[in-house]
Amino acid sequence: MKFLAKIVDELLSQNSDLSGYTIVLPGKRPIVFIRQILEEKNYSGFLPNFYTIEELIINIVDQQLIQGIALWLFAFDVYKTLPLIPNDDFAEFLKWFPTLQKDWDDILKFSENDEAVLQYMFDEERIKEWAQDLGDEEEVPRKKFLNFWRNMNIFLPFLKKKLKERNFATSGMITEAAKNKITEFAKNTSENFVFCGFNAFTPVEEKLVRNLLQWDKAQCFFQADHYYFDDERQEAGKFLRNHKLWKEFNDSRAFNWIENDFNQPKKIKIYEVSGNVTQTKILPDIFKDINNKTFTNTAVVLLDENLLPASLDVMHDIENLNITMGFPLKNLSFSNAVKQLFYLQKQLEKNKSSYYYRDIFPILEELPKTAEDEDIINHFKAQIEEKNIVYISKNLVTELLHDLSYFNLLHKTESGFHFLDALTAYCQKIKWLELDDIQYENVSHFENAFKIIKNQITPYAFDVQIETLEILINQHINSESIDFQGEPLRGLQVMGLLETRLLNFENVIMLSVNEGKLPLGNSQNTYIPFDIRKHFDLHTFLENDSIYAYHFYRLIQDAENVHLLFNALSSGVNTGEKSRFITQIEMESSHTIEHLIVENTSEPIVTKPIEFIKTEIVMEQLQKWKSKVSASHLTSYLYNPVDFYLSKILNTSEADEIEEELSVRNYGNLVHFTLQEIYENLIGKILKNSDLENSIKRIDEYINLAIAKLKHQPEFYDKGMNFIHKAIAKKVIEAILKYDLELTKQGNTLEIIDIERRFDQVDFYLNDNKTDKISFMGFIDRIDRLNGTVRIIDYKSAKTKNLVIKLDENNKSDYFHSNDRKQAMQLCIYQYVVENLPEFWGYPVETGIWSFAEAKKGIAALQFEKGNLDDAMTSIQSLILEILNPDVPFTENIKSYGF
């Protein structure tokens, strides 16, 4: 720590006893390093006092700082006493006050008079509206802005008055109050101040430092470098150049220190990386080039805090690791679950009879749970998915989840206070579960937040709604982070850019050096326009850019090895543009820079078709399969042999998923099951006109029976696309019944023989001497007899395709090895089965498909233009032998799409 060591040497040269010094720092992190340096120098006296400059100013003013939730509640209590129009409720108030309060603090810190700025904002809006006819419409945006600043000119001065009455002050008010006390403080204090490593000051901080310098009660140590200090174009030196012009720095008091470290030899590597997380995967390769494997003088600086988990994942082999930066609480799973709980409560206010499954499932998945809870949740999800319940009734939720340990959180709460108590109790209870350290900290932070909010709200009389409570929680949590503990004096340091102040490292690795991350650019959350900020000398994004530029250059000026990584991919808000600070170094510095382009080299998981070899166990399963072969098995194999392997050999099945919109498969089932219900009542009858006419009248009744068979809730079909699907299904069913009715009206004899006819043990031989065989099994959707001809009918949702068979000696062996001919193959198997059933011997047999997509056309029959059924079965035999062939693996069908 070169800079800190230099300060300590200077102070020890002035006085061997440092107890008389008060060291003022930008942050508290350097204190531990100063102590280490003193220990290394065998310092044996009392330590100096340490302050941040904010703490020093608060001590001068002697006011109680109020911020966060406490300030928001106090401010709203004041706000509601004023006759303002509009007068927002607490939820609306919280949407604008935190941003306004930050602006107000800026005004108080940087301007001479906050009321003058507020009046200027109001006058600005009045000028914009000059000569315009606003009318009486209050919702006109321009009028809303005008009213807002009119109200703020009343509210903020009154709020300041009320805060002062209680001896409360915001950070801006403390700064304002310090203006009038600094001169007296500097004159009377007996302390000897040392200001270390500062760059930008607020006007009050500058006044404090300069007054102390004038009374010779302070000294300043800056860390500047000639590279950016001497060049007026370099924004990094903007503030330091101004400080050097202070009259307090003269021949008797030098401006310390301007060094020439940046131009010393350095190895700078710039990595253009394809991907955000991909940056972290490069870290192990960078670590290999670092000679000191304890990494004591190495820092990994994350400009995107969200990269911390991925970075830690690749650093698991590093023995000593110190994480200075915090990880945002809002990004953790328990935080997401809490957000979902509040969202659920708001939804329950709108819909008091049922739960939307997407509102409750994430909560059940993400909240910590006991083993008993896990069983209850799995049963609940299985029931909901099986019945495809999109909107779950409260009675069903109670029936299935009443034993859940946190079931009370899923109920509509009585009040915001009651919900806070329930959440606090839940956090206290789950902390006894086996949680990992990060999750435990996550829960503990929320427990503390719930208690703080409850305690802060209690003194006030206003009612807190769930929406208001949600905003409070979110505002609080968004500013919270989990702090990690480690050893700051040795090992690899992982930190954010601001944590590097005053510290120096030999090896610097910086991730996400992208425009928009460094610097942040014009992303200020403010109500005060840029030109007005400039007019009143408030900081704008330009000053913020200069501050970040200084931190960037200062960090690398003492480093020997610098690795700058940026994400070159454009996604979301990231433009894939490297930081302009990188471009500045490339174009302006004298260093030789090595450029590396790192592509995301992760290969696709599947580089070639999946293939499963037919092992002995697989062949054993295939032998079992031979006793129960269905036409659908063979069509599955044609579609994709791997699907056949997974479902028929491994006996796996796809997990049930809740359908918000009826799938093609279930649409087909709805029509199919309805037709089954209708025609089962007509089995064995020669149909009369009245049979079909009565069935048409009762279609709705039969559809409801089919819905029950699907285990769907009737309300699933009450609205939206599902209502339309149901209406289309009814039209299809009606078209089929009317087609049959037309046949009977024309004098045809139509008899329903069977519906969903099950068949099994229908043998089919695979060799000429009949020593090897398979047995067909399955269901035929409908068998009827039309004018003496037995018809085998298969229902399909899709349109019919390739039902005209053209078999000859050249194609017979592999005719049905094509997925395009699977419909015809299935009909051939059904015809073979029926012709082998004794009850149908002697009858002419016809097979066909009745497509729901073309219901009015009736049955599309299987036709043999060339060849016959025996030839077709020879081709099917060839397909079955291929499946049973141990030398032919199950190989995935790769679908190709032409454009």
TrEMBL record:
Lineage, uppermost ranks: Bacteria, Pseudomonadati, Bacteroidota, Flavobacteriia, Flavobacteriales
Stretches assigned to the PD-(D/E)XK endonuclease-like domain: 629-893
Top-rank taxon: Bacteria
Protein name as it appears in the record: PD-(D/E)XK nuclease family protein
